[in-house]
Design a protein that fits this description.
single chain; 57 residues; mainly alpha
């Protein structure tokens, strides 16, 4: 996993978690859903990069 892609994945996951928490705190369902979606995007990016790493070995 390249460091750049790993960083992007982590940023998306953390930002998504923050959005989800903020959405829940204020009762904003749209913000909560956006946070979950952003976390999923980060998870998918991380999984893609891990698959690339496995293919290199």
């Amino acid at each position: 996993m390249t460091a750049n892609e790993k960083g992007k994945a982590k940023v998306e996951q953390v930002t998504g978690a923050a959005k989800e928490a903020a959405g829940r705190a204020v009762g904003n369902e749209r913000l909560t859903a956006e946070g979950r979606a952003q976390q999923a995007k980060g998870d998918a990016r991380q999984a893609k990069e891990k698959t690339k790493d496995i293919g290199k070995h």
